[in-house]
Each structure stands twice: as structure tokens, then as C-alpha cells.
Structure to design on (711 residues):
């Protein structure tokens, strides 16, 4: 009997020690059980983080050079060829330097990255006799070279980093605008709502592609200009969802409770309603990221995108279309895009599943 | 304003306009509250009863001044006087910014314990929040008070890190009560605080409310449709029908000897838990409650009243003093009049 009571006391204690779980934690747990989405998520996150240290593995600059008993780290600092005893103009070419040191055999050496080609590097001189770019994939250039003799594989990798960064930034900014405008519409309602909604309707009829074409014919588009233009047209759809969420949540009792305790409008909007209105935003985010990557690829393909020589998937496809025989210029960027977009879509699918409220509304 | 009163509602009218037609003109209005005057004495519990849609929750929300927030085009007339340390103030004249100053004094407990707590905030944050707006307490002091309040309402202080969805309905309502007490209010408007709960839990929550009322010297406006609940907790009861008060008086008087024909019918519907007792006669009213969009002229109850006369259509009958502290809005009944035999059957 005594043992029993101590046991129950223990159980009670364990119960009270039980770690509490917010709804977000519950959803995260659920998301983790959806293997396809979770693995895609890990893969994309890993690749994206990895893409910031690509130069350590894929790049033209040597990691380390030993020359006349001095050590140089060209990956961090630009070195003139003459400093390292190479007889060419401008920056050193470390692949040639490596060969040169080997021939000289004076104890100097060069440590190159695993895949020693840069994204914007013209390899015309090194392709060998009778090989005019674009060249087919082989063991030195895994995805061949493009029509300016640049390594396609490295360009694909850098293109991933630029495309995904671009898309994340555009998505973040357009959602920020959508949250602010949607929140104002849904929360204040009435005339404010009507006026802003009419403005949005007018704005949404502006043809996106023409605006881009006009802008890029006047200004040279760059990364930030493109972000601004895509954001300007990207926020509209999400605004409707946020507005709807705010309209619905505003009528709930916890908002009345917040008013009755004297919370300010800003507090109510961003402390109370917003955290309860993020479901559409989070479930749509992966698909918006996909759409924005796709927009950038399309714009690059049409030639209205990032200025050359920025490594970009769309630009490679454009090259492929010019000479259809160079199949690798079409297939490899398409595969890269397909893989990326598919994984992000898997993530989106899993998030949607994890946010499905049916699981939580079940009576226990 | 009388000295013993902490809150006085004078001639309160709340109308919700209905818009229609091509240009959304006002085509009709719902008279949710149609000229109600109430007094809440210091430390008492006033029970406000009536059927669904009679405007009892609207009164509560008008007092706490949150109607304009959820329906901006609502029309509110009348006065709600609150006695504060600095004097008396008419809450309806204040805008939201000015009202903020008095919100700490007058708090609300909501009906639905599921939607009245923000599910993204932990219980500690929920109870702490009113203190952020009304006190200058430091974080440590606030958390201390949160723990103290949680113990007071029968929760464990360690549970403050948990989220509302990890609690049962009754526990959630306790969280709501703790939140309403966080600013040391003088008045609490309880808008059907137990109607969403199981009967066994109802009793616990009501007893808790009573204990807290005594301990904190609260004045409680208890809105409910469950008469036995109201009888248990209230010192005075006000009965509403279609936006009007029909009877108000001491709880015992109203519960055992109602005067107004509507109160009689309402109270005859209360089930008796003891099957051996002689069943009192149910007074079944004819027809349905009229729509508050087109209320009957004069006495709103006349369309269903067993003693209605032609004169009832002329004007809304005022509350008349029938006995000490017992008012009823019907000129044709008095404290001794017995229309049915229901009272004799009562214990």
C-alpha cells in the first residue's frame, strides 16, 4: 500500500515535469515523421548552407600555396601571378601554377579545391587541341562547358545559391508586405479595407512581365532591382489570405479579451492575431519559393534576368536553346531545377500535412 | 449615483443596424438592449438571466465597452457610471484610449474557455498580460503574482509553462478567471462562465468564483441562462426578455416567488432534481420569442403573456416597486397575486 502511494506520487511528479509542447512544437514533431518532406528539408537546408562554402570545394582559387618557403591562402586574398612566380598578366591561374611547380620541382606546391574550376572562368586555353566550347561532359568537366568555355557544373552550383537566395529574399519581403497590408485590411475593416482592396485590385492588373521588360530595357537589371520588382508583384496573393485570417481571428474571444484588458491595436495585431494567422503563410511559403525560383529562371532564360556573367540556370538553358545539339546545356540545368523544385514541393506538402488541424481537433 | 453602488447602468440602448439593398443603406435594426437600467452594489453578485438572444451578453459587453470593437457600426445610448477612487466616470463617453485607464478595474470572464485563451501563448504569458498594461511590476514580480493566482484558482504554479490546449475545459476557465483577477479588479463581468462546462465542473467553477468574490471583495455581474446556477451564486437576480428588464429583486424572492408572468414561466421550467417532489405545473408559453428586429409595441412580452390586455400595446411598462427591493415591469401583477398555483408546490 505504501509503495503504491509513493508510486502514484512519483507518477504525479513525472506528469507535472512533463515538458510542455506548444502547437508549433507539435507540428514540427509531426513534420519530422513525414519522411519525404523531412529528408527533402534536410537536403535543401544542407545544400543551401553548403553553397556558402562552395569555394572550398568547387572553385578556381587555390586553398593554399607554398612558394619560396612562404605560405599563401589565395582563397581569402587576391594574388597577382607575378607574386607567385607565374609568368602571366593579372591574377594567378592556380591550375597552371600547379603544373608549373611540378615541372620546376623546387618544393613549391599548390593545394587546389576538389573541383578546381570557377563559375565565371573562361577555360578556352585549357580545353585542349580541337576542343571548341561548348564541350561535352567528361571526367574533368562533369557537366561539360558552355559556349564561353565555362564549367557548367560549377555554374549550376552557384546558380543554386543565387536562385535560392533570390527566391528566399523575394518571398520574405513579399510576405512581409502581405502581412502588414493584410493585417491592416482585416483588422480595421470598413472603409480602410475597401479602399486598400480596390487599390490592390488595380495594382494586380498591372502586367508583371511587361513591367519587367520595360524596366530592364531602361535600367540594367541587377539582383536588388529584380528583388524589388518581383516583390512588388509577389505580395498580392498572400494579402488576401492574411486579411481573411485576421477577419476571422478578430471575432474570436481571445481578441475581445485582449481588448478588454486594454491592449493596443499593435499588440493585438502582432502579439495575438498574427501568431494565429500564420498557417496559410507557412503552408504556402515553399510553393512561393518554388514559384520565385521559377520566375528567376524564366527571366534569365528570356534575357531579362540577372546581368551576365552571373551563373544562372535560365541563362544556360537559353544557351542550350541556341544550339540544340548541346544537350547538356538543357538537360543539366533542367535536372538541377527539377530536383530543387521537387524537393521544396515535398517540403511544402509535408508542412501542409503537418499543419492539418484535423489531428488536433480530435477528441482524446 | 448611490453610495453603495459601484456600477450604474442608466437607460442603456444597444442597436445593431442591418444594412441591405444596393447601396447598403440601413434597412432595419436589432434592438439588442432596449432601455435597461441596472445597479451593481459593492461586493454583491447580480445574476442576469434570460433566454438566448435577449441581450444579456450584450449588456455585459456594453459595460466593458468592447462592442464597438467587434461591430463598429453599433449604436449605443445611455450611461454606464463606474465609481472609481477618483470619482465617477461614464464609461460609454470614453474612447478606447481613455477607457484603457479603467480596464484594470473592470474585467471579464468569457463564455467559451476554448476560444478565449490565445493558444499561441503559454498560460503564464496569458495571466501575465493584463499586468503588462496596468501595473509597473517587474518581470519577477509578475511571475510571482502569476504563480500566486494560479494557486488561488486551483492550478499548479508549475503549469505556467504549458499551453492552453494541454488543459481541460474547466482548467481553461480557471485560467480565464486567473487572468481576469490579475489586475485586482473591482468588478468582474462573467459572461456565461460555466455554460460551456460539464455540470460537475460547473459547480467547482462557481464555488471558486464565490470564494474569490469574498476574498477579493469583488462585485460580480453574472450573466447566465441557467437559473439554478444563478440562484446559487447571486444575491440579486435580474430577468430579461427581448432587451428589457422585466423583473429585478433579491435572489430568493425572484427564485421562489416571481411576480412577472415571464419570470414565472421561466422559473417553472427549472427542473427539480428530486423525483419524489410533486412536480410543479409547467407554464408553457404560446408561440416563440418575437424577433428583436420588429419587437412588439409596448410590452414586448404581451404577444405571449397569459394576462395580456389591450393596453399593454400602448407603452413599455416601467419597472414598478412591488415589494422592498423587488421590481417588476408589469402593472397588472402584485406580490400577492397568484395566477397559477405554482408557488404552493414549492418547498
Amino acid at each position: 500500500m505504501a509503495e503504491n502511494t509513493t508510486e502514484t506520487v512519483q507518477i504525479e511528479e513525472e506528469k507535472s515535469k512533463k515538458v510542455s509542447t506548444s502547437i508549433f512544437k507539435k507540428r514540427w514533431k509531426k513534420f519530422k515523421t513525414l519522411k519525404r518532406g523531412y529528408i527533402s528539408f534536410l537536403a535543401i537546408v544542407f545544400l543551401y548552407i553548403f553553397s556558402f562554402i562552395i569555394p572550398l570545394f568547387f572553385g578556381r582559387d587555390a586553398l593554399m600555396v607554398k612558394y619560396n618557403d612562404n605560405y599563401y591562402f589565395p582563397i581569402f586574398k587576391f594574388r597577382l601571378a607575378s607574386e607567385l612566380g607565374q609568368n602571366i598578366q593579372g591574377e594567378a591561374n592556380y591550375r597552371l601554377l600547379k603544373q608549373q611547380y611540378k615541372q620546376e620541382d623546387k618544393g613549391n606546391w599548390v593545394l587546389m579545391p576538389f573541383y578546381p574550376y570557377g563559375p565565371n572562368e573562361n577555360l578556352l586555353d585549357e580545353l585542349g587541341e580541337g576542343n571548341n566550347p561548348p564541350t561535352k561532359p567528361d571526367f574533368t568537366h562533369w557537366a561539360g562547358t558552355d559556349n564561353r568555355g565555362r564549367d557548367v557544373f560549377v555554374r549550376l552550383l552557384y546558380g543554386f545559391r543565387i536562385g535560392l537566395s533570390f527566391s528566399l529574399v523575394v518571398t520574405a519581403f513579399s510576405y512581409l508586405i502581405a502581412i502588414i497590408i493584410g493585417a491592416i485590411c482585416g483588422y480595421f475593416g470598413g472603409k480602410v479595407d475597401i479602399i486598400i482592396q480596390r487599390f490592390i485590385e488595380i495594382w494586380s492588373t498591372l502586367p508583371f512581365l511587361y513591367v519587367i521588360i520595360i524596366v530592364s530595357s531602361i535600367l540594367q537589371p541587377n539582383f536588388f532591382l529584380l528583388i524589388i520588382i518581383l516583390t512588388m508583384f509577389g505580395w498580392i496573393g498572400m494579402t488576401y489570405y492574411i486579411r481573411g485570417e485576421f477577419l476571422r481571428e478578430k471575432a474570436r474571444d481571445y481578441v475581445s479579451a485582449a481588448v478588454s484588458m486594454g491592449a493596443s491595436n499593435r499588440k493585438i495585431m502582432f502579439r495575438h492575431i498574427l501568431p494565429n494567422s500564420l498557417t496559410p503563410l507557412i503552408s504556402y511559403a515553399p510553393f512561393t519559393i518554388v514559384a520565385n525560383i521559377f520566375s528567376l529562371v524564366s527571366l534569365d532564360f528570356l534575357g531579362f534576368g540577372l546581368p551576365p556573367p552571373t551563373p544562372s540556370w535560365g541563362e544556360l538553358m537559353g544557351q542550350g536553346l541556341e544550339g540544340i545539339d548541346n544537350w547538356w546545356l538543357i538537360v543539366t540545368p533542367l535536372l538541377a531545377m527539377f530536383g530543387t523544385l521537387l524537393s521544396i514541393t515535398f517540403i511544402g506538402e509535408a508542412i501542409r500535412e503537418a499543419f492539418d488541424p484535423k489531428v488536433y481537433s480530435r477528441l482524446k | 449615483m448611490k453610495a453603495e453602488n459601484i456600477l450604474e447602468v442608466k437607460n442603456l440602448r444597444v442597436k445593431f443596424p442591418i444594412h441591405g439593398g444596393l447601396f447598403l443603406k440601413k434597412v432595419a435594426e436589432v434592438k439588442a438592449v432596449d432601455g435597461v437600467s441596472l445597479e451593481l452594489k459593492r461586493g454583491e453578485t447580480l445574476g442576469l438571466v434570460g433566454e438566448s438572444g435577449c441581450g444579456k451578453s450584450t449588456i455585459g459587453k456594453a459595460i466593458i465597452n468592447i462592442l464597438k470593437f467587434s461591430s463598429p457600426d453599433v449604436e449605443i445610448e445611455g450611461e454606464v457610471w463606474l465609481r472609481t477612487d477618483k470619482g465617477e466616470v461614464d464609461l460609454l463617453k470614453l474612447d478606447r484610449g481613455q477607457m484603457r485607464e479603467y480596464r484594470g478595474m473592470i474585467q471579464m470572464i468569457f463564455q467559451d474557455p476554448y476560444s478565449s485563451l490565445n493558444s499561441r501563448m503559454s498560460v503564464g504569458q496569458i495571466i501575465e498580460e493584463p499586468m503588462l498594461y496596468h501595473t509597473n511590476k517587474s518581470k519577477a514580480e509578475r511571475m510571482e503574482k502569476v504563480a500566486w493566482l494560479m494557486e488561488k484558482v486551483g492550478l499548479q504554479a508549475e503549469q505556467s509553462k504549458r499551453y492552453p490546449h494541454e488543459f481541460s475545459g474547466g482548467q481553461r476557465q480557471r485560467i480565464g478567471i486567473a487572468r481576469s483577477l490579475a489586475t485586482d479588479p473591482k468588478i468582474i463581468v462573467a459572461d456565461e462562465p460555466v455554460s460551456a462546462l460539464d455540470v460537475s465542473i460547473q459547480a467547482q467553477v462557481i464555488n471558486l468564483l464565490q470564494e474569490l468574490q469574498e476574498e477579493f471583495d469583488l462585485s460580480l455581474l453574472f450573466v447566465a441562462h441557467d437559473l439554478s446556477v444563478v440562484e446559487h451564486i447571486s444575491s440579486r437576480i435580474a430577468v430579461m426578455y427581448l432587451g428589457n428588464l422585466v423583473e429585478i429583486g433579491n435572489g430568493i424572492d425572484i427564485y421562489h416567488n416571481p411576480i412577472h408572468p415571464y419570470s414565472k414561466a421561466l422559473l417553472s421550467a427549472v427542473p427539480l432534481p428530486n423525483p419524489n417532489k410533486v412536480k410543479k405545473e409547467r407554464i408553457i408559453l404560446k408561440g416563440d420569442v418575437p424577433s428583436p428586429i420588429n419587437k412588439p409595441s409596448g410590452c414586448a412580452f404581451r404577444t405571449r403573456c397569459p394576462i395580456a390586455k389591450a393596453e399593454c400595446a400602448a407603452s413599455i411598462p416601467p419597472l414598478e416597486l412591488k415589494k422592498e427591493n423587488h421590481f417588476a415591469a408589469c402593472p397588472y401583477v402584485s406580490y400577492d397575486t397568484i395566477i397559477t398555483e405554482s408557488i404552493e408546490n414549492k418547498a
Notes: Chain A has two domains: 61-112, 153-361.
